[in-house]
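User: Good morning. I'm curious how heme C would be positioned relative to this chain. Could you predict the structure with it bound?
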Amino acid sequence: MEPLLWEWGSLLLRWLHVVAAMAWIGASFFFIHLDATLRAREDLPGGVKSAWQVHGGGFYEMRKWMAAPEFLPEHLTWHKWQAYWTWLSGALLLGWIYYAQSELYLIDPAVRDLSPAMAAIAGAAGIALGWVVYDLLCRSRLKRNDTLLLAALFAYAVAVSAVFAALFSGRGALLHTGAVLATVMTGNVFLVIIPNQKKAVAALIAGAVPDPRFGAEGKQRSMHNNYITLPVVFLMLSNHYPVTYVSQAAIPGIVALSLVAGALVRWFYNRRHAGFDAPGHGGGWWAWGAAAAAVVAAIALSLALAPSDPGAERRPPRATLPPAVEEIVLGRCSMCHMPSPVWAGIGLPPRGVVLDEADAILRQKAAIRVHAVLTHAMPPGNITGITTEERRVLAAWAAR
Ligand code: HEC
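Assistant: Good morning! Here's the predicted structure, ligand included:
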């Protein structure tokens, strides 16, 4: 397909994905905050709590029926499509970038020489299996102890990232770990929380009292979603930053530390909001210090594992390029796009794009066409002075 259309496709899917995710996370943070700030009052019926809010020039009183109302309201808003759209757009974006262009983004022959079909199957199957195992863990005996279950899930997420790191490129491994966690979040909404709510509503319609087990199970899954929200966003952003995948060995550590940092920040807010009307305001500030320590540890890990002689383990190039093309790319691009860039201020090859020998350049052919021929995004500000004639040479080569 026309490479610029690939770019547009990726932009539009990403736009949808980010907007849907903002709507979902926004609603979810809102309800978590609301839950934490609800208070019983004397003028309210038993089992009902309320919280006052002011927003956009209006005052709102939000009430929560701790079990369920004895009547079914006529207008009932379900919050579920934000989650479903986030997952659907994310799945499309994953396919668009990582499966349709897997040779650029998902496959790293130095890690494992997968065919594009094998890589896509492994990725999709890994995500599906990721949910199944999570769900089994939650249904096991561990479910009776929230803390134990969380600890098991943490170890599980790190193990998942280690498996992906053994299969895929660094960015592919981080993104797939994020996709498993995001699928867990959506699966919790789609397969547990909403069905349980539907059962509760059905019981209400039948004039019965809904089984509180449904609510308890939904609440446990909601709590998991709450704690993994921030790590998922980090993992989704990480693929744009090669510092997070300096080496495959760093990946489980980066995942573990992002889980710790993100969960601690959520824990702080959950506690703070719950204690908003208490003297001392909830406390728990140590969580910020601990989260910062986790971030510092992630940075230290990335610095420690960054390859010192990145060229050492590479195979000699097998492909050959037209000498004119090789000369242009080496002369205009590789100072930034090499394993250890020599351009001042650039520490790692930007976006992980390496352009220093024939094999690597050939892998990036389509991207070179998009960024240096069809658009003039590269070199940035034409800082290395590529000429129009040189772009024509690249154009003739890349179009083939
Ligand atoms: C002065 C340093 C520098 C030079 C020279 C340079 N680039 Fe880049 N390149 C960058 C930076 C920085 C980015 C990341 C841009 C961003 O994050 O938006 C990048 C990103 C890219 C990307 C990935 C774009 C994406 O969005 O995924 C490609 C492909 C690329 N460059 C190709 C080239 C080619 C081809 C040349 C030579 C014609 C070149 N670059 C020259 C610094 C450079």
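The chain has a mean pLDDT of 92. The radius of gyration is 25 Å.
Let me know if you'd like a different ligand tried.
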